Structures
1.
Amino acid sequence: MRIIATIRIALRALRRNKLRTFLTMLGMIIGVAAVIAMVSIGNGAKSQVEGQIASLGQNVLSVFPGSSTSGGARGGWGSASTLTPEEALLIASEVSGVVAVSGEVRDRQQVQANGMNWNTMVQGESPDYLGIRAWPLADGAMFTEADVKSAAKVAVIGKTVADQLFTGSDPLGQTIRLRNIPFTIVGVLTSKGVSFFGSDQDDTVIIPYTSAMRRVMGRQYLSAILIQAASPKDMTRIQTDVASLLQQRRSGREPDFTVRSQLELAEAATATSRTMTALLGGIAAVSLVVGGIGIMNIMLVSVTERTREIGIRMAVGAKGKDILLQFLIEAVTLSVIGGTIGIVLGVGISRLLATKMNWPALTSFSSIVVAFVFSAAVGIFFGFYPAKKASGLDPIEALRYE
């Protein structure tokens, strides 16, 4: 009963100065709303990055050409073009845990069809490529292993190419020309949009890598080898095994290739997002501290103003712990109500930004709980000193205070 009476007294004191109470809570409202909104934006950006990385495929490793040296001049990464289709087949057959491999050659080419032309990325791949990239077809079918062996003139096109060359018509079964060589369209890809690197993934034409090397690009070596592991736990081992296998074929020469794991890319990208989220949250958290200092300031003023009231309460039997509890409840109430309003405002702001400005925003339940607990903790921390000061007043001196 004593605690309930103390709570009632504390709430009555807050209602007595409604404007001051609201202005005191305003700092907490703004602080919590800023934390919720900023963390939501950071989490949304992180989720978007993870989604874009996932669009590159699951459990993917890539083998890229390394650098070469000629006459003392060192070329950059990719200058040592020594990856061969045979090595891609060797990886598929000899490295355990590998479920799919695609030898890859890439080049930009002018594509002609239907009286139109378009400059696009032409990719030479194996039939496993769409499985590695988790890229379903909207229509038609992927070319087969037989098409690869015969260097068949068949192609699968992305949505951007389909829109540019076959507006208003079905591209399936029609012909496109690469360097004046006719290729029959056997499949159309679903749209994937912009990649993590900012390029249009749908602006592509995919043909058998043998067709690309022999008929279109005149190349002897691959641009890269894409590998899909059976599970994420196999990726580190497969990365090591692939590097060892390729190095054995080079008979001890300096490595002229590099094996990259998708996990490395994902970790680098999400680390950047985590840093941004922490930075945004930290900046917003400063306003929470400022709000807490505002609560402490007002509570100290309140103690000074209500010195005589405190003296009267002590004179009629209130103990120091009752006074301490009263002022502590006032501080916590200010911060908790302000925090609750701030949470609602922060969620609303993040949703408004997501709807009106197309900013990625993801509000997690954990961030709401943390913001609420933190606001209550701020009230306790910054309210304790004024409450302790009030409870330590001498009743006689308090009664004589003017």
2.
Amino acid sequence: MSDRPTGFSSARNRRFLPAADPGALAPGEIVLRDATRSFDVRADPARTLKGALLNRRRAGLARVPALQGVTLSIAPGETVGMVGRNGAGKTSTLRVLAGIVPLHSGQAGCGGRVVSLLELAAGFSRDFSGRENIYLQGALYGLRKADVEQRIDRMIAFSELGEFVDMPVKTYSSGMFVRLGFSIAAHLDADVLLIDEVLAVGDEAFQRKCLRRISAQIAAGSTVVLVSHDAGAIERVCERVVVLDAGRVVFDGPTADGLLFYHRLLGTDHGGGESVRGPAAIDQRPVQVHDVQLRDGAGRTATVFRSGAPLRIVAGLRSRQGRTEARLALELRSGDGISLFATETEVALDADGAAAIAFDIPALAVLGGDYDLVISAGDLRMADRTLRFSVVSESTATGVVDLGGAWRLLTAVEAST
């Protein structure tokens, strides 16, 4: 464990200092007392006469409150989910606990080593490779080089970046960033783990793996504070929920009650588990996609690819009603949901009503970024599986499609014809 001092931070000092009254905090203990913080959202004044005059007129604008007297006490080993509307103060609370943002009044403190995963690229050097950034992050958390070397193979394996870990992180997509960032944070010996909505970027399989890793750290005694809009993740990880609204704690209690309170606050009493098509709709369909894998040119399972590299999509089908054939639909979407490519085919099922089928892409003609693959045994509007994968940005081109073109200077003869 780190020899970082434990205790409280105040508005005058962003370090965690021994509290004068209650004494040092136990490892994993978190305390907020009447924590207040506000922000000035005005941009820097323009360096013109007009800007100076306008800025003078706006001098009386009130600051925007982020935290208004927040008081919380979290015991070592507790798992707490923090939910609320956008702007409710969730991220500000974590930044205060991480020592990033000072308070204007009140006290805040965490006992022991605090590991925070608040922003994807926080603390990364964009010109360094992923491997070099692992050493950099380890040093920032007080680890010696030997300590990092004991963990680095596990970090890289967890991230699933493979050979791309030795590429500059400025070529990474947001999905690759979250893989690397979480892999580092998840393999540090944390007394307190602060996580802010970053898991939403990863694909479904990686999110499940992250949740399993968080569960392992909980079992090892870490205190976890998780900010997420995913009610399912909160339910799986947290035993307690804190609901923030307009910078104040409006509920603090058991997870089930807390999520119900939050949904009622939003006017959605049924929460996020409702489906437009009903929870059993897929199970009632005659044919289902039960397994999907993405493989690289060497046949290995992968989630990160190079532009122009081969990609194989392998899907397993099964029928519950003894059907002999099925229609499989596949669609590729950009990270913001725009359809880039769609195709479908008829598949013959064997005597057991099952089949395995592959779709081979000889050269992945897309530029760097995150992409979603949607697969359904029938209608894509009722998808069976959605997978997210990343493509490394190795080109100066922008957009989505990789045309594979190249610039060439023409000779005088070529230019005249």
